[in-house]
Amino acid sequence: MLMNRAETALINSAPRRWLQRLYEVPTLLRFGGRLLPGSRAVEIGCGSGYGSQLVLQRFGAAQVDAIDLDPAMIERARVRLAPYGDRVHLATGSATDLREVLNANDGSYDAVFDFGIIHHIPDWRAAVAEAARVLTPGGRFYFEEVTAHALHRPTYRRLFDHPADDRFAAEDFLDELGQQGLIIIGSVTRIQGDYLLGVAAKPLAAGGGR
User: What is this structure's pTM?
Assistant: First the structure.
């Protein structure tokens, strides 16, 4: 579901970007490392494109496909990411159907990035399944998420709009990653379980290497 005006303003604010740049990205890099040269990545829920910019600059992706439900956000991302030219492809659509939005076959990407978007998706399990499907063997899913513990707080309920049913705790999200065949290689929760950051990997095929 689309973010409301209050949350859109928050995610585009300087404090949010500082947190992402100075804490979230270093934490995810500590767990999952930089991408290999030539890697192709996808960011789901790219917003104004700041996360994709970090994927290019800090994680070392060679190419990034970035999607968002909101056409206005895609246009903002287009302006921000214009200096990267054809290293970036933007599309409007849902993270639950990357085959439709990006023509993404199984094993299309070396990395999937989720900077706090899956908790906005009513069928969040389908989004996790898509992330797992499009990862190449050895690929990594970098995630930063807001849990049900936070979404039940009065401030969140008053200011922001989120799906009301089937919200996940941190352990639910991690369990679902395992159900989709991903292996957790590092995770951390913060503020009484409100926020979850981590990296999961898709197992290598027999005899493969990364």
Answer: 0.93
Q: Over the chain (210 residues), what is each successive 10-residue block's mean pLDDT?
A: 73 86 96 98 97 98 97 96 98 97 98 96 97 98 92 72 84 97 96 92 74
Angle, helices 170-179 vs 124-134, to 10°: value is 40
For residue 170, what is the enclosing H or E element? helix 170-179
The answer to whether 95 and 130 have CB atoms below 8 angstroms apart is yes
DSSP string, 29-82: HHHH-PPPTT-EEEEES-TTSHHHHHHHHTS--SEEEEEES-HHHHHHHHHHHG
Long-range contacts, stretch 164-168, CB < 8 angstroms, 24+ apart? 165/122, 166/122, 166/124, 167/119, 168/119, 168/124
